[in-house]
Amino acid sequence: MAVSNWQAFRLGAVTCLINPKAYLFMLAVYPQFLRPDFGPLAPQAAVMAAMTAGMQLVSMAGSCSFSSMMAVTSFRLFIS
Prior knowledge:
Number of helices: 3
Distance between the termini: 32 Å
Strand content: under 5%
Number of domains: 1
Order of helices and strands: HHH
Number of strands: 0
Shape: elongated
Oligomer: single chain
Helix content: over 70%
């Protein structure tokens, strides 16, 4: 059965979002870096969330770039 790109993306996103290990990790790690003596916790948590999202974006973009570069390189090697 052929799966469209959108269906594959949606399946991967849902699988990632329902992964309890990621949520447990964040619940275990985040509180160690939130300090009440530095001010309200909500802005600190927002900055941490933005940093995490930014690092994930950079990491995933790097992985995609490297993978596509390797795919093109290997395609060129096998064709020639």
